[in-house]
Amino acid sequence: MQKILITYGTRPLAQRLAKQFSAKFEVVFASSEEVPSFLQANYLKIPTGVNPTYAHELLKLSLDKQIDYILPLGESEINSLAESKLLFEEYDIIPLVPNLSDLPVYFTIENPPSQAEIHIYLQGKGLDVEQKLHLPATGLLMVSDDQEELALVTI
Q1: Rg, C-alpha atoms of the chain
Q2: Sign of torsion, CA 75 61 137 103?
Q3: Looking at residue 111, what DSSP letter applies?
């Protein structure tokens, strides 16, 4: 089973996604936030997305833990991974983020309600759902019924 690393792992959105993805992926949580000591074994420690070493530290951790996909939930993490996407792909690790040049066109929805339907896409193909979009979008997305509007989901 492929592994997906979800950042901001202590947040309710990350926990919800883990349940949603558990049939298709082995979920690994990471967080730059403080984690209570009794839960630390369940979360990998990572730097914040604005840290200049974020991408390199996340790459090293992903290689060590044999991660296939990285799903960043923080905006700064998404930006950092979009900038260094090629580096990860050279090691067959796929950051589930839009291309850097496409980021400005995405509307962003923070902490969508639990009833909102959100899925992960890679070049328009659903990874957790059998759906193909008309656009080659990548990331954690909410999609309008007509698939014409996409929103990037963040914390």
Answers
A1: 15
A2: positive
A3: S
Pairwise CA distance, residues 52 & 127, whole Å: 30
Spatial CB neighbours of 73, under 8 Å, sequence gap ≥ 6: 6, 7, 8, 11, 13, 14, 140, 153, 154, 155
Once rounded to an integer, what is the mean pLDDT over residues 72-77? Answer: 97
Phi and psi angles of residue 7, each rounded to the nearest 5 degrees, phi first: -85, 170
> How many H helices and E strands in the chain?
4, 10
Sign of torsion over alpha carbons 4, 121, 106, 89: positive
Tokens of 89: 């792909």
Q: Which residues contact 97 (CB under 8 A, 6 or more apart)?
A: 72, 78, 81, 82, 85, 138, 139
Q: Which residues contact 109 (CB under 8 A, 6 or more apart)?
A: 116, 142, 151, 152, 153, 154
38 three-class SS: helix
Confidence band for 69, pLDDT divided at 50, 70 and 90: very high
Helix axes 75-83, 54-64, angle to 10 degrees: 80
pTM of the model: 0.95
Least confident stretch, 2-11, 24-33, 39-48: 39-48
